[in-house]
């Protein structure tokens, strides 16, 4: 039984011949690389910002946690921005599970009003990922 969302997404992308299927082993490798990278380098930092800007009661929020995590995010966001220079997708030539997994984590940045102006490639890519019709449909289901 799979229970980790990234593992589930990678499994489903490979099991079914849909738009996120990675027929090429190299594309699958890059998809896994970016998915794990986002979990290890970005997810916890954004989660702490989300907690201290939105989720915690006002009296429990600590602005220093937000400032620290925003500072720590600069390096991984710079790496992602550089990798997206001249590219529309993280792995291969079309939208893959890599884009889905990484964008799903970075979407928290939108919720916490993270300023992405210093990373224009990342911002362009994330906006395109979040503008996909499937994302709008998924968000509508949750309402």
Commentary on this structure:
- By secondary structure, this protein is mainly alpha-helical.
- The chain has a single domain, classed as Glutathione S-transferase Yfyf (Class Pi), Chain A, domain 2 (Up-down Bundle).
- It contains six helices and no strands.
- The chain has helices at 5-15, 25-55, 63-83, 97-111, 120-130, 133-141.
- Helix 2 (25-55) packs parallel to helix 4 and helix 3 (63-83) crosses helix 5 (120-130).
Counting structural domains, the number is: 1
Choose one word for the global shape: globular
Mean pLDDT: 94
Supply the number of helical segments.
6
**Spans of 5+ residues with little confidence (pLDDT < 50)?**
none
Query: β content, as a range?
Result: under 5%
Helix content bin: 55-70%
The main pleated sheet reads as: none
Q: How large, in whole angstroms, is the Cα Rg?
A: 16 Å
Query: Can you write the helix and strand succession as a string?
Result: HHHHHH
Q: Total number of β-strand segments?
A: 0
CATH topology: Glutathione S-transferase Yfyf (Class Pi), Chain A, domain 2
Span from first to last CA? 28 Å
């Amino acid at each position: 039984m799979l229970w980790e969302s990234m593992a589930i997404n990678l499994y489903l992308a490979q099991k079914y011949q849909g738009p996120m299927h990675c027929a090429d082993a190299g594309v699958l490798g890059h998809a896994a690389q970016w998915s794990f990278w986002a979990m290890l380098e970005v997810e916890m930092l954004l989660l702490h910002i989300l907690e201290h800007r939105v989720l915690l009661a006002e009296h429990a929020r600590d602005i220093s946690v937000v400032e620290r995590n925003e500072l720590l995010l600069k390096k991984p966001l710079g790496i992602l921005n550089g990798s997206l220079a001249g590219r529309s997708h993280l792995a291969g030539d079309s939208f893959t599970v890599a884009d889905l997994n990484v964008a799903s984590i970075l979407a928290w940045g939108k919720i916490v009003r993270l300023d992405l102006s210093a990373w224009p490639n990342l911002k362009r890519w994330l906006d395109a990922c979040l503008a996909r019709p499937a994302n709008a449909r998924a968000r509508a289901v949750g309402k």
